[in-house]
Amino acid sequence: MNDEFATPPPELWQNMPPTLRVVAQLRDAGIIDPTLARSVYRSEAVNACAGGSAGSKHRENRAIDFDLPPNPDNVARLCELWREQGPALNLGLGFYTPTAIHIDTAGLTSRSAVECPHVGQRSSSRHVAVPQCDAFVGATVFNSRVAGKSRAPAFL
């Protein structure tokens, strides 16, 4: 069953607190708005429907995707934080678009190794037709932008 609101299995719960601490830091700095979260934990089925990679940090419950609030300084401030604190925070940062971002705390990876604002340019998050996903409304939370919906986990 594809469940866009699935919670991670208990053995993955411990993976999210480091990412939430970074989210809190970015929230307190006014860089992100937690209510603009687009994708957090993804089951294998939901990840496949979303076009996520097999090694997606969302599957490990270590990643959150956000839309940045409309402030022209947010990208520059986010990049500055990534450059200055990224290694200490184990911060992975990727951009789907200039204002749709991926944050994880699974370590600096090759997608984070290039200069901001093109840190980890990620592929398009368009929904790809997958037969087992057709009945799954909102197969990718990214599509909620098109539907005019916005969802954020209650704990943010």
Task: Give a description of the structure.
- This protein is globular.
- The model is unreliable at 110-115 and 123-156 (pLDDT under 50).
- A hairpin with a 4-residue loop joins strand 3 (92-95) and strand 4 (100-104).
- Helices cover 25% and strands 11% of the residues.
- It has a 4-stranded antiparallel sheet with strand order 1-2-4-3, with no helix packed on it.
- The chain is of the alpha+beta class.
- The protein has 4 helices and 4 strands; from the N terminus they run αβαβαββα.
Task: Explain the layout of strands and helices.
Elements lengths: L16 H12 L8 E3 L4 H7 L12 E5 L6 H16 L2 E4 L4 E5 L39 H4 L9
Strand order of the largest sheet: 1-2-4-3
Q: Could you report the average pLDDT, rounded to the nearest whole number?
A: 74
Strand content: 5-15%
What Rg, in angstroms, do the CA atoms define? 15 Å
Which stretches are low in confidence, meaning pLDDT under 50 for 5 or more residues running? 110-115, 123-156
Overall geometry comes to globular
Instruction: State the major sheet.
Output: 4 strands, antiparallel
* Total E-strand runs: 4
What's the order of the H and E elements?
Answer: HEHEHEEH
Q: Helix content range of the residues, please?
A: 25-40%
Through-space gap between termini: 26 Å
